[in-house]
């Protein structure tokens, strides 16, 4: 038995007993002689986090990240479960690669990894992948993330298939014709710095398309990484109208703006791009009012040589190890939302969308648990990341909230800065 002593559960001090993969008791518990006791005084206890949008790069791009390094980053960031996007090489578009990812993740034995399979074969946008077989093999959702499904009829058919298989389709909304060679958000900063901008419309026209298609087919669709005021407004309107649309956003869209790229720093280059303050405020409001269903990292690790100049840099931020602290500091410390609400956006809400189990701090609950020191104030230092990707625009950012322990299925996988392997 593992006994967590004196943890703070949303303002209440509790002891938590864990046996096997379950929480057996929550309350005041006297330690028995065979118990491993973890002193959690001064630490907050939460269900371990769930990230429904990460890129683990394996198979094919292990120089950026692999399932082992990505799993280490996950548990170091407080995540018990991550869903990995299929834009690997080869693409996760058949049952063999789905099984490969699951097998490899089980061998690594840290975080639980759930593959998301491609909507179209090779993410090429033409032939729909075999949803039934992929779901049977363990795919929890479908997405061509990294790329949009450009053809509206292809998306319409894919949504019909998804409905038939009761699968979640996650749309990376980007009209490539409107991106038009841009490298950052279209606005004041881009013009001042002399870079070609990307209009908000490149995201918003496709958000509008997906809402229209979901409405027409009376089926659900999930919008990935929303970044603009307009996307948030359309999704809020659609939800009010009863259309089955859900969405996610990432810490960088509420903790940063395109000002981070004013001096040409390629670390802040991400897709969709960091927007302006009014968008950042709108995303925070959308989190407050329930428009946003999940906070995800879009963890996108890259090698150092791929992040050298803004014009040529790859898009993406290594996010698993900064997500909670950025969200806690920006949203909870500021008073925008409660810790309970943040916890829900990083656990039960995404878990329900993709239909996977997640922790719950109650008797009988799954023992996916994280202990966080909410009073720890520190500067983000990418050299300490377990991820191979050190690409973050938040280097030196002062944040609150440090993950001290991550438990997955009742086993401690990360504690006091170290990965724990069985
Ligand atoms: Zn994407």
What's this, in brief?
The chain is α/β, with parallel strands linked by helices. It contains 13 helices and 19 strands. The two termini are 16 Å apart.
Structure description:
With 422 residues, the chain is of the alpha/beta class. It has two domains: 41 residues, no CATH class; 359 residues, Alpha-Beta Barrel (TIM Barrel). It has 13 helices and 19 strands. The strands form five sheets. A five-stranded antiparallel beta sheet has the order 5-16-17-18-19, with helices on one face. A five-stranded parallel beta sheet has the order 9-10-13-14-15. Strands 3-2-1-4 form a four-stranded mixed beta sheet, with no helix packed on it. Helix 4 crosses helix 7, helix 7 packs parallel to helix 8 and helix 8 runs parallel beside helix 10. The protein is globular, with a radius of gyration of 21 Å. The protein starts with a strand and ends with a strand. Zinc ion binds next to loops.
Can you give keywords for this protein?
422 residues; alpha/beta; TIM Barrel; 2 domains; 5-stranded antiparallel beta sheet; 5-stranded parallel beta sheet; 13 helices; 19 strands; globular; binds zinc ion
Question: Which CATH top level class of the largest domain fits?
Answer: Alpha Beta
**Number of helical elements:** 13
Helicity, as a percent range: 25-40%
The kinds of small molecule bound in this structure are: zinc ion
Widest sheet: strand order?
A: 5-16-17-18-19
Rg on CA atoms, Å: 21 Å
Q: What is the total tally of β strands?
A: 19
The oligomeric state of the chains shown is: single chain
Q: What does the overall shape look like?
A: globular
| Contiguous runs where pLDDT drops below 50 for at least 5 residues | none
Relevant CATH superfamily of the largest domain: Metal-dependent hydrolases
